[in-house]
Structures are given as C-alpha cells and as structure tokens.
Amino acid sequence: MMISKKALLVLPILVFLLSGCFGASTQPALLICDELDDNDEWVEPAVLAEQKYGTPISLSLALLELPLSDLDKKHVRPRSADWEEYRIRSERWDASPQIPDDAVDFIGWFTQQSVKRNHIGWQDAGEHYLALRLGHGGYHRFEADKYPELAQQAKGIQLRAQRWSNELQACKGQWQGESWFNKLKLW
Predict the structure, then answer these.
(1) Cystine design at 108: which of 32, 53, 154, 158 (Cβ 3.0–4.6 Å)?
(2) Which of the 8 DSSP states describes residue 178?
(3) Is residue 107 packed enough to be buried (19+ CB in 10 Å), middle (13-18) or exposed (0-12)?
(4) Helices (H), strands (E): how many in the chain?
(5) How many CB atoms lie within 10 A of CB 11?
(6) Over the stretch 8-18, which tens digit does the pLDDT of each residue have?
(7) What tens digit of pLDDT does each residue of 86-117 get?
(8) 164 with 67: CB under 8 angstroms?
C-alpha cells in the first residue's frame, strides 16, 4: 500500500491533535474537594443533612442550583408550597433558600420526603430533581415524553451527582484534619 505525500504531512498533525484528546493532561483537574475547600460553608450542612435525613452529600450538592464555579452563589429554588411545608415542619421560620445551611437542610428534608412518598432511591438524583421541580404529586404525573427538556435536565443532574460522588472520594486525604471529617459516610 502506498501512502501519498499529502497523507504523510497530515498524519503527524492528526496524531498530535488526537494525543491532546486522549493523552494525559499535564494540568491536574480541579477537583470538587478543592472547590469545597474554598467554599466550605456547603460541606458541613451537607454532612449534617446526611446525618439528619440520610441524604448523600453528592445528592445535596447536585441539587443546588448554579454551576460548580459559582459555589459561593449556590442556592435552592423550591416550589413555594414545598418551602412553606418545610418551614412549618422544621419550625425554621426565618430560613432562606439563599443561605447555605437552610438550602442544604431543605434539600435533605425534601429528598427524605421523596424517598418516603415517591419511593425514590438515594442514588436516583435525576428523579429527586424531578420531584423537587414538580412537587411530590407532580412527580407521579410526570411524563418524560411530554417534557423532554425537563427529562434532559434530570439526566444532567444524575450525571452531576455521579461526578460529585466520584470526586468526593478523592477528598479523603485532603480533609482528614477537618473537625467534621469523621462524620462523613463517603468511605
């Protein structure tokens, strides 16, 4: 088989480009634990929500709004009826969805309710997202084919929770000196 001169010129460029896609990066990836170290006001409430409600830390963090790079601006956008039910049942009258402790405690409470009412497994972050967006009754009536955008968002939340779970495993060595570290159920 004969290779043309043009192919010989293109081949090294192609190999170089593909090596950037599949080769190991010289820059270490920014892990979630690095971000959380800088924004630790989210970690302790997530640990407490896990202890109090059983909500995995990765699920709590995945259900917070806004991307990882805006951790300091994360919050939760609950349906008003759900927020009022939470405030009544928890007797946290001054709670605000923009305050980390309140936002994560609400998510813990709400996901626990979703497990009880809707029989959603803790690992099903996308389903918890749908319950959070639609309410418990709306979740039962949800038809993915009628709302493909919402179903796609739920898949994204599922992937985000899996990423959180995987990357939180790497935090063990980094967080061993923290006072709340031994409370984690990650390991």
Answers:
(1) 53
(2) S
(3) buried
(4) 9, 0
(5) 11
(6) 444 444 333 34
(7) 999 999 999 999 888 999 999 999 999 999 99
(8) no
CA distance 123 to 161: 8
C-alpha span between 173 and 37 (Å, rounded)? 12
State how far the Cα of 117 lies from the Cα of 1, in Å rounded to an integer: 67
How many other CB atoms sit within 10 Å of the CB of residue 136? 19
Asked if residue 169 lies in contact with residue 140, where contact means CB atoms within 8 angstroms, the answer is: no
State pTM to two decimals: 0.75
- DSSP characters for 36-53? HHHTTTTHHHHHHHHHHH
> How far is 32 from 58, CA to CA, in rounded Å?
10
Q: How far apart are CA 92 and CA 33, in angstroms?
A: 29
Q: Are 136 and 119 in contact (CB under 8 A)?
A: no
